[in-house]
């Protein structure tokens, strides 16, 4: 279980800055439509989960 959390943290620290940049741009410069933003956040979550599982197997 410790290996899963380590990989999850590693992937989270890699993907989270991109998500934060997109959210900052969304709330300041160019607002996205709500469904698009929700799809982006769901996609980011799936990327985090998928990469964690993939890297655990590698």
Summarize the structure.
This protein has 58 residues and is mainly alpha-helical. It is built from two helices and no strands.
The run of helices and strands is: HH
Q: Percent of residues in helical segments? A: over 70%
For the record, the count of structural domains works out to: 1
Unreliable stretches (pLDDT < 50, length at least 5) are none
Distance between the termini: 16 Å
- Integer-rounded radius of gyration: 13 Å
What's the count of strands? 0
Tell me, briefly, the overall form.
elongated
Q: If you average the pLDDT, what whole number results?
A: 94
Q: Strand count, sense and closure of the main sheet?
A: none
Into which percentage range does the β-strand content fall? under 5%
- How many separate helices? 2
Structural class: mainly alpha
Blueprint (SSEs and pairs):
Elements: H1 2-28, H2 34-57
Helix pairs in contact: 1-2
Keywords:
mainly alpha, 2 helices, 58 residues
Descriptive overview:
The protein has 58 residues and is an all-alpha fold. Helices cover 88% and strands 0% of the residues. It is elongated and about 40 Å long. The two termini are 16 Å apart. The relative contact order is 0.18. The mean pLDDT is 94.
């Amino acid at each position: 279980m410790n290996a899963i959390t380590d990989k999850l943290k590693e992937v989270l620290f890699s993907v989270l800055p991109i998500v934060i940049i997109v959210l900052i741009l969304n709330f300041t410069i160019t607002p996205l439509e709500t469904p698009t933003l929700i799809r982006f956040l769901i996609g980011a979550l799936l990327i985090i989960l998928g990469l964690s599982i993939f890297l655990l197997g590698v």
